[in-house]
Amino acid sequence: xxxxxxxxxxxxxxxxxxxxxxxxxxxxxxxxxxxxxxxxxxxxxxxxxxxxxxxxxxxxxxxxxxxxxxxxxxxxxxxxxxxxxxxxxxxxxxxxxxxxxxxxxxxxxxxxxxxxxxxxxxxxxxxxxxxxxxxxxxxxxxxxxxxxxxx
Length: 151
Hints:
This protein is of the alpha/beta class. It contains five helices and five strands, in the order E-H-E-H-E-H-E-H-H-E. The chain has helices spanning 15-31, 61-81, 95-105, 120-126, 129-136; strands at 6-10, 34-42, 86-93, 110-115, 141-145. Strands 3-2-1-4-5 form a five-stranded parallel sheet, sandwiched between helices. It is globular. Mean pLDDT is 83; it is low at 46-57 and 122-126.
């Protein structure tokens, strides 16, 4: 039987990532693995421009603080249901790049993440973080898809 000691779970606080967290808890309890909940604060780009008066600092301090607080609430909730240790990390950057970098730097056996399931123009415009991670990851990636009608 394969072993699994550490699971990376990128979260964006969407229904898809919530479903991925639940699946990670199932896996972690089955294998006595640790879970690392991981949120990436997107940096401003052409599709996510700087808006006057908003939190546009290059380091996104306010966004990171808010995300860290939300992620800590999630971590505490998940810890009550998981048998292993649950960690929470927040970093800033391009989501696919930062997720892949964190996966390479950590001792993670698998990445479990949700997807929005966007199609057509929306997918072309926004891209797919999950697809980018699947295509370039050097370890298994489990994608949890929630149909648009549910999310």
